[in-house]
Amino acid sequence: MEFSEVVRKRRMVRHFSNDPIPAEVITRIFDLVQRAPSAGFTQGQSFVVVTRPELKKEIARFCSEEDYAETFQYPFISEAPVLAIPCTSESAYHQRYQEADKVDDKGQEIEWPVPFWFMDIGCSVMILLQAVVDEGLAAAFVGIPGKENNAGLKHLLNIPDDCTPVGVIPIGHAAADVPSPSLKRGRKARAEFLHLEGW
């Protein structure tokens, strides 16, 4: 599939068939995801992949699946054959930027006006969403509302203390779904999005 087609076909799908996804497809997807950029080649991004039905239901509960189902009509988190949980490690970046080739001229870690650990996991997620489309599949992204749910998900999946799960990505074969009502907002005008030579 051409890259431009992948980008244009990508959308958040909120209903999946029960058709399984072969393990080799998941391997191909994550081989690409691992090529995402990271500051200082820190590689602070990690993923948990879940396929067990009972575990998917527990994960969906931490994502408030019932609330989503009221709007989108389907339990699309737990029904997806695969869930991917993207995680980032802030401490990995601090450790990397205290190494000799990254400290400033005073031997100190740089200041972080932008938390690149979130930037980098965002890059990984985008590659994942596009790789899924390239394989003829579909995906969504859902948040984990509240600190208690985030902590519960970390405990459920044995995610290390220094790693933060940033959401849950259901992956599967698309079924007819209810488009997000947010799409009614439309895309903003190009002049508001693109600023040439300055704002």
UniProtKB/TrEMBL annotation:
Q: What keywords does the record list, in alphabetical order?
A: Flavoprotein, FMN, Oxidoreductase
The transmembrane segments are none
Database matches in InterPro entries:
Nitroreductase (IPR029479), Nitroreductase-like (IPR000415), Nitroreductase/BluB (IPR050627)
Which positions make up the signal peptide? none
Tell me which residues make up the Nitroreductase domain.
Answer: 7-173
Protein name in the entry: NADH dehydrogenase
Origin organism is Dictyobacter formicarum
Q: What lineage, starting at the top, does this entry show? A: Bacteria, Bacillati, Chloroflexota, Ktedonobacteria, Ktedonobacterales
